[in-house]
């Protein structure tokens, strides 16, 4: 295959394939959301958690918070494509179940994590298992036609937005329950003030296992599965660097830049709210919830209407510009309404970019390797999630919020300029 070519979907019936039943799409969306909870519950709590874990160390909390996010993100980088490749070969459902069992073990360990080092180990295992999000993306691709693909991927984006809305609120409520206030001797077993948050995350994981086991239907039939499984370190590293399809390489880089900037801003938003406005974790949780609400509005009302007149690329263009404007407003030294206004623009833009680029990824990828290629696509996002928070956190710590957030607003415009060069998908 010529490197400049975009492979058409190898399934000749793809265009005639009906959209997935809403029950299956709903199950996939909730599976994605429950996966996100493992990450999202603690986002508004990070400053408080770092202060607790680092009480005996002279390490800046904003820097170590970035390290925790980096470990989580980089753990997904290498395992995301592996989960996807296994699901191409063995089917979506069994591999998704295996990853969730490992995630459950990680959540149980989190309950007893009373040191920063044990907590970082838990973040690594949680990141490894969250790489299974590539499987849910592939399941959407299995079940939707070319013309319904962006709306199908929008289900995953809505699951992400629902997580952004509810998980910080849930985390903010759960952290108010300190098990040590009721059973002090549990401290000897590693139970800490955040163990009830970990318990809540564990219960969501149990619910996710039940949903996948009894409600999730296998979407990847045996006859469509890959015959050869190659998940060697050399192969995965090579494909993380580049794949034969030039358009996919371009898209992966655009997605990396966008998620790098988005994850950085989202993660450090709690530090901005604390340092500039002296907001409590509970108040910050409401800020993250508002972000999720506006993402849901963008995905539920704006994107479906735009998709009637625009393709994936054009929808993403609007999203990039809105996101850049939002972060620029957040960088400015305005009263707290400036933070909220900027967040509304950022959330609305992200609500357009995520499903649009995810749809493009599934259309650029070969039909029989959707899991692997979407895993590689999400691995680039995981790299962005891993490096973004610590990069912005470091700039924030040494220069302050105006320079840090202002510089990252420019990154969205850079991603926009790159996205304009993406070719239209074939097939």
C-alpha geometry: globular
Distance between the termini: 16 Å
Based on helices, strands and strand pairing, what is the structural class?
mainly alpha
Describe the largest sheet.
Answer: none
Overall CATH class: Mainly Alpha
Percent helix, as a range, is over 70%
Q: Radius of gyration over alpha carbons?
A: 21 Å
CATH-derived topology:
Growth Hormone, Chain: A
Let me know the average pLDDT: 83
**Strand content bin:** under 5%
Topology order in helix (H) and strand (E) letters: HHHHHHHHHHHHHHH
What would you give as the CATH superfamily?
MFS general substrate transporter like domains
The DSSP helix count reads 15
CATH architecture label name: Up-down Bundle
**Uncertain regions spanning at least 5 consecutive residues:** 1-20
**What count of domains describes the coordinates?**
1
Structure description:
With 427 residues, this protein is an all-alpha fold. The chain has one domain (19-220, 232-419): MFS general substrate transporter like domains (Growth Hormone, Chain: A). 74% of the residues lie in helices and 0% in strands.
